[in-house]
Amino acid sequence: MAEECILQTKGISKSFFGVNVLNEIDFSIRRGEVHALMGENGAGKSTLMKIIMGIYHADAGEILFEGKPVVIRETKNALDLGISMIHQELNPIPEMTVAENVFLGREPHVGRLPIVDFKKLNQMTQDLLEKYEMADRISPQMHMSSLSIAQIQMMEIIKAVSYNSKVIIMDEPTSSLSESETKQLFKTIDLLRASGVGVIYISHRMAEVFELSDRISVLRDGSLIETIDRAHATTDHIIATMVGRALSSGYPRNHAVPGEVILEAKGVSGAGFEDVSFQVSAGEILGFAGLVGAGRSETMRAIVGYDRMKSGEIYVDGRRAAVRHPSDALKLGIVMASEDRKSLGLILCRDIKENISIQNERRYSRFGFMNHRQEREQCEGIAHEMSVKMNGIADIAGNLSGGNQQKVVLAKCLLTHPKIMILDEPTRGIDVGAKAEIYKKMVELAEGGMAIIMISSEMPELIGMSDRILAMSGGRVRAEFDNRERQTSQAEILRAALKGVE
Ligand SMILES: Nc1ncnc2c1ncn2[C@@H]1O[C@H](COP(=O)(O)OP(=O)(O)OP(=O)(O)O)[C@@H](O)[C@H]1O
Ligand SMILES: [Mg+2]
User: Fold this and answer.
1) For 327-383, what is each residue's pLDDT tens digit?
2) Which among 5, 108, 246, 324 could disulfide-bond with 120, CB atoms 3.0 to 4.6 Å apart, if both were Cys?
3) Which atom of ligand 1 is least distant from the CA of 47?
């Protein structure tokens, strides 16, 4: 058994500022297996992987590679051993080409001259792209700035295999991918597995984990609760292990009777969307379906004033509204939780309290004086309500786990007490327990009279939660489905979402 392990951790522990995040973790990855790592937001998944990559250092424990203890002080050590990681957040160097990025710092030279042999560089990259069946989707000379997230990921995978990696870590690789891109990634993972690479696969998506993995490990509150063969695991068992209690699956129902139309868009156009019209009523959850790039986020960003609208009109409560800046939208009671929490959602260097209250400063100041006690209490309340895993609201946002950052974004929006809330991929990267809480909260808010617009790429979520669904493609609304009377099928939605796309 032991000899087929490529990589093993033994008794790895880690604390941040006196708070224990990992407890004596024994974890292993075998040759040619996909080992899924699951756990709630903040369970310690990314931290364990960053220790393996030399980004963080363990307080105790050891790492064995091919049976021998190794010291990994920096990422270079891990890469040299043959371990690489595709991070939760991708940071490519935009000015470079794909080939330059893949062989960064290891470029082939012309003879012994200090001149890069670009022909060879591109050929080496092309060979790898062909070997991993990506050559039809990405080429060596493409510029990084022109790539989609899926293509950047392909580049990262090619980079990983170019180091002859024996272990590749993927931290939530599919969270920004469309269904067809996800399928493509799975094919690549199968090729990696067949060539003996061990893949550590972190994901919150149960179906994916069951489709792909050979073994599943569950982390809870920094402890490894169990490692189980996929063949012996069930979804319910894994969920119960993750959250430490049984959890009802399924979607809560919105019983609100839709009231007056609160928001209406009439023929709005802008960069990436054309002649979009829709209405949403009080108490209604309106879903927006579409593939990545359909123009859903672009439309909403223009409606709340992040981007410019070229033409069209917006009505709030039947009155024509002019939104030139997000603060105009806030005054009208419209708030948006952006899908890109890094650029729009959060100030990563500030603490949770500041992030939650930033849009609300007016609420706490009277005659120019801030009511700090009230501010703190409300922030604490809402952070607990969203079950943000934290030591306190003075924690720095950038140190939170991916999913917990997302919860802070939602908390921040809720605290503005909006009439209309626009959620762009609200459950991306969120664990099962927290997802259920967010769904419950959405229904509660709708039943309290709020209008909710939800953009989502997860079909089951869209169908499970929406009262009505609009499908967009190529920047236009292609179809509308009443999802109350009769549940819309995935096929119907997909057909509409593919209209006008080749
Ligand atoms: N640099 C840091 N400083 C302080 N605390 C940190 C730091 N990095 C991580 N943590 C804390 O460690 C805990 C584990 O975080 P980690 O990112 O490993 O979670 P995760 O399992 O990857 O969650 P998610 O599914 O949300 O991505 C969290 O409570 C987080 O706040
Ligand atoms: Mg993480």
Assistant:
1) 899 999 999 988 765 555 677 888 888 888 877 655 555 566 667 788 888 888 888
2) 108
3) 18
Residues pairing with 423 in the sheet: 337, 454
* CB-side neighbour CA atoms (13 Å) of 55: 10
**399 CB within 6 A, ligand 1:** yes
Contact 467, 284 (CB under 8 A): yes
Pair 76, 70: CB distance under 8 Å: no
The domain containing residue 395 runs over which residues? 343-417
Low-confidence ranges of the chain (pLDDT < 70): 1-3, 88-92, 245-249, 340-345, 360-370, 501-502
Specify whether 50 is located in the same domain as 24: yes
Instruction: Write down the pLDDT at residue 35.
Output: 98
Q: Is the CB of 44 under 6 A from ligand 1?
A: yes
Edge to edge, what strands does the sheet with 451-455 contain? Answer: 334-337, 420-424, 451-455, 285-289, 468-473, 476-482
Among residues 301, 283, 385, 380, the alpha carbon closest in space to that of 344 is found at: 301
Q: Are 451 and 281 in contact (CB under 8 A)?
A: yes
493 and 394 within one domain: no
Look at residue 424 and tell me if it is in a domain: yes
Q: For residue 48, which atom of ligand 1 is closest to its CA?
A: 18
List Cα–Cα distances, 323 to 65, 296, 300, 315, 419, in angstroms. Answer: 57, 18, 12, 10, 15
Q: What's CA 428's distance to the chain center, in Å?
A: 4
Which residue lies with its CA nearest to atom 29 of ligand 1? 42
